[in-house]
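Hi Prof. W.,

I finally got the Glutaredoxin-3 prediction working! I wasn't sure whether to trim anything, so I left the full sequence exactly as given:
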Amino acid sequence: MAAGAAEAVAAVVEVGSAQQFEELLRLRAKSLLVVHFWAPWAPQCAQMNDVMAELAKEQPQVSFVKLEAEAVPEVSEKYEISSVPTFLFFKNSQKIDRLDGAHAPELTKKVQRHASSGSFPPSGNEHPKEDLNLRLKKLTHAAPCMLFMKGTPQEPRCGFSKQMVEILNKHSIQFGSFDVFSDAEVRQGLKTYSNWPTYPQLYVSGELIGGLDIIKELEASDELDTICPKAPKLEERLKVLTNKASVMLFMKGNKQEAKCGFSKQILEILNNTGVEYETFDILEDEEVRQGLKTYSNWPTYPQLYVKGELVGGLDIVKELRDNGELLPVLKGGN
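And this is what came out:
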């Protein structure tokens, strides 16, 4: 088949060997080359192959390649492919970007961006190294206990990350998490920053504790509970939340976007008083949503608190407004 015909059909090329892959990198050096590392057993890979076929029609100037990750291990290992689907982007035979996971909108966005930027690599001056280190410092301090993992606590994407989450949850340890698949810069940069080559990585107060093996050792020696902060009991947590600001509103949605009519009305009333207040979106946290009903003995939302004490819901707030009592109550009167 002539090369021109292949371009016209904009087919996705299947690569079966490392030699073929290197050859393609050389031949397609002038254009953007998008490589999908896939596996026949993963249904999300089949979906992403369909997405790629559509993109190939829309972007005939871009070369799209499928490479079965386990069939060509030398290429997969070279580019640290540890899960499928993973997409690598090449220009001038150099890797310029990466996308882990089945994120069709993100893939489309990256293809469009790299296809329209004539030169390679965009990363050079976007985040100087100092900026990356500053960012990593902030991320490692984002919570008292921070887990950098593959996937999320709800959906871990490797066995080691899954085991780590299970151990932390078993010990009721409160932790924040960061999905290293969501950001290639963080994923690579943190290995150098912490001098630790693998994931997951657990940090306490910004200091690296270690990976899964170390956490297992700490668990076995009963030291884990002394190192990592425990999740507060629900009642303690609710007490802290209701006292987070002088005026606290527990609602569906947030200040910017109410997600039910009652919450929208109460926002309008509070905004008209000019009093500062904070909100908590109960739709984001099922434990708080259910627990607060019992804690306050109030079955519905929104709920308004002043200095940690429940004032009531929308009807009571309307009543106080109509009686001219709302402002004094919000300012801490009885």
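Residues 1-9, 119-127 have pLDDT under 50 and may be disordered. Does that look reasonable to you?

Thanks,
D.
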